[in-house]
Fold:
Amino acid sequence: MGVAMEYDYSIAKLFLFATIIFGIVGMLIGVVIAFQMAIPELNYLAGEYGTFGRLRPLHTNGIIFGFTLSGIWAGWYYFGQRVLKITYHQHPFLKVIGLLHFWIYILLMALAVISLFAGVTQSKEYSELNWMLDLVVVVVWVLWGISLFGSMGVRKEETIYISLWYFIATFVAIAALYIFNNLSIPTYFVAQTGSILHSISLYAGTNDAMVQWWFGHNAVAFIFTTAIIGLIYYFLPKESGQPIFSYKLTLFSFWGLIFVYVWAGGHHLIYSTVPDWMQTLGSVFSVILILPSWGTAVNMLLTMRGQWDQLAKSPLIKFLVLASTWYMLATLEGPIQSIKSVNALAHFTDWIVGHVHDAALGWVAFTIIAGIYHMTPRLFKREIYSKKIMDMQFWVQTAGIVLYFSSMWIAGITQGMMWRATDDFGTLIYSFIDTVNVLVPYFYIRAIGGLLYLVGFLMFTYNIIMTITAAKEVNAEAKFATPMAG
Structure:
């Protein structure tokens, strides 16, 4: 037998810490916002900097580009070496790139927090950062690309494991989408007036909306979806000891997802000034998207065939299996909402908010949490501090998700029905404020659900900190099985 490779996990550790910090901050802001919706007076306790309008971009950017990307990159810098059979000790250039990637990313996120708190934004959903910070985003993304493709270029393992296929898709798609959506003209250099931070989009009106949601929905597709699939395709087989059910199904699902997802963004613009054929295109491709999405989810669940007893034994397996289940739910719910007749009821309602969060809390965050629980013993050579806390955390957070999405489903359908209700003369029965008053109890339930999820995440944070500082030391590489390379 050969000598076990000594992997360098220093960058993975940095991104693991970043994941936890961004998770706490992003979720805390989300809970504050949720209570602001139920109790509007809370908007004014901290002045203009504590209002919904200032906090909401911090929440979305903190969760999508802070918590989620940090979790994805922690996974990459952990298992990228392992499945490619390389180490950063052998390739110090790749370690330098990884460190630059982390620290420039942290600088970017710090500047993002400052600018968004100050209200400096280009007013694009999930693309609020000003043009200067957009350039830093490009640098961060290119550095990850160098790490990703550079590592593959020096790999000793011939087969590129399926997780890395999904990472490649994430890198390529977001690179193209982000650049095109954020093309803008800094007004200061044209008119020599106003703030140097201000810019205007290269597109206008309907064109701007189409490009924005081409990016906006595919930011979900290639960060919340493909990259997270990359994580679970590594951690679920590794943790369960079971090979992926079907490699052919991974290929079908991968290529189906790539070719179909990029056309689905138009469903955000149904009943708008966007051409009708484009709205229909978005709806049709959204429905077709069920096939590759469920192909992936079924592949994950069937990986556990004959091993369902592990659910009773391992809290970590609970997180991964329920994440797969939430993925099935979310990828059925989204296409249903994109059907024109359903969208007429659902659009602009809280049902959409419920859909986003059952995916983000159940699928994305559970996968990242499970990944960190898997990595931590191997990064720090210590056993997990408390499996009881893991189990309690699972049930607390699951209860939070159920309260969140169920309240928002009910609230959203109630909104949609009230907005379209008319009397015998075709006059609207309810004013807008009538719908707001009816929804207040559901806003409270949503806020309580979010608070439960945050409490669960704080339990997770405590468990990880105690694992690193106080848990029993163990030779992780000897104790835990080596990962599958294909």
Q: What stands out?
A: The first helix runs from residue 10 to 38.
